[in-house]
Amino acid sequence: MKIAYPALAALLAFSAVAHAESMPRYGARLEGFDYPRPVQTFAFTSQAQPLEMAYLDVAPAKPNGRTVVLLHGKNFCAATWESAIEALAGAGFRVVVPDQIGFCKSSKPQRYQYSFGQLAANTRALLARLDIDRAVIVGHSMGGMLATRYALQYPASTERMVLVNPIGLEDWKAEGVPWRSIDAWYERELKTSFDSIRDYQRTVYYSGDWKPAYEQWVGMLGGMYAGDGREAVAWSQALTSDMVFNQPVVYEFPRIAVPTTLFIGQKDRTAIGKDLAAADVAKRLGDYPALGRRAAAAIPGATLVEFADLGHSPQVEDPARFNADLLKAISVP
Question: What is the span of the domain harbouring residue 34?
């Protein structure tokens, strides 16, 4: 059947609208999206305002007396750790998984001085409230930068650290990525959609590969941007993007004084601000095979585990293999 161009355009427009309307819409604090375990709330005061940090606290059936804290990345939430939570709890670990302030089911204050030091202090306050003095700290993506700051700030409370494809293994600004204002970050975030999230993750995280299992995480993030709280979500993401870009931790790797394991998916190409960089700069950024080896050499006594066929999120791409290696890495206190 031959379709005239105006009719084709109308059909495509109708399909796009129908597709958008079929996607989920969540609240600014991810209301409507269910987590794999019951969500609890830690109420506290920070920077002269009341805040709430959502978290999961999963007790094992047969406790081994140890605790693991899982720290999410910037484009992730506590729920993204669902497979690791079950594996760790099954092995006897108590598992605590917070949503950081500004993310997912936690408060999104309009005025907050975001820093990794502040987020580390918030996390330490949560653990103190739960009577947890010492824990294994596992950080993925942006959570790797936070885990590093936590270990530097609270070495006595850090049993060991695991960094899973952490960002911040290079200083993007020093490498030549131009500075971007918070207002510019905000305008960029307001353009976020289900399709832009999927396209970014397919290209940068998974080297062009895509699996149906990843769609739930696209829906989780996209649903917040599609909901009535999109401005609050975009603003929080803009503020935290500024934090990530301007607060490198890579120079402090030699000061890390806790046992550390790096898990590096070799297909990852994540680099903050790469879209603003000159072509020659963008080409060399996010070289995770080289960055992982350099980080392992800089962190005293670090162990490097490489996943040749995986990208930015090994715990999502191959949960069974990742969980087995994670348990192995933390098996010895």
Answer: 25-329
